[in-house]
Amino acid sequence: MLKVSGLKVAYGAVEAVRGVDLDVEQGELVALLGANGAGKSSTLNALVGLSPLKAGRIEFLSEDIAKLPTEVLVRRGITLSPEGRRIFASLSVAENLRLGAYGRAERDQLDEAYDQVFALFPILKERETQLAGTLSGGQQQMLAIGRALMIGPKLLLLDEPSLGLAPQIVETIFELISALRDRGITILMVEQNVAMSLDIVDRGYVMAGGEIVAAGSAQELKASNVVENAYLGTG
Ligand SMILES: Nc1ncnc2c1ncn2[C@@H]1O[C@H](COP(=O)(O)OP(=O)(O)O)[C@@H](O)[C@H]1O
Ligand SMILES: [Mg+2]
Hints:
Shape: globular
CATH architecture: 3-Layer(aba) Sandwich
Structural class: alpha/beta
Distance between the termini: 29 Å
Number of domains: 1
Bound molecules: adenosine-5'-diphosphate, magnesium ion
CATH class: Alpha Beta
Helix content: 25-40%
């Protein structure tokens, strides 16, 4: 479904991503792991035209999408739930979700999108009219994911869904992510929480210093010490 090769991202003189190759098959849940500053967000953002692409090829469903603007990519079925959630605290839950619907302006389509998200996250239905800023951290993360689901994506990109959440809440969020994959949504998830990620993903890539330093099945990565080394800066 997604095939990335030779991806480079640079912020002026700072080369944040130095030639990344990765792919995601239809129906997979894949993790992109690595320490803070490894280049994970830059990679994920580049896939949807939100970080400065210096080089590389990005194929989505066999088409080159590297130069396409974000809103076109959304219409083609790729959405990103960004790091730090980026929800609008002073808007209601329903209004936040609506922002994720982009071109789905027709009322019945919008209603269908709401219904699908509320079926996945019943708590958001209960809080529909509440201001997003009054939600708990876990609920805000559900809202961020729900917003990305409003267009019915084929490929969902999640940037650090566990960030700032208590371990028990992380477990709930990861169970929900697992359930999304079981419903047929292909997912590429950026995470620093290695142990819990490897419990739910099919495969993973490990990044350090803007490069992929290891790749393998969840089992393989659990058994090896490359992940640990990447975090300690010796990978
Ligand atoms: N907008 C930006 N401008 C300049 N440098 C940036 C910007 N965003 C990220 N970087 C730098 O790029 C590198 C990788 O960052 P990032 O992709 O956010 O890593 P990660 O998501 O793995 O923590 C870091 O050195 C970071 O400081
Ligand atoms: Mg990041």
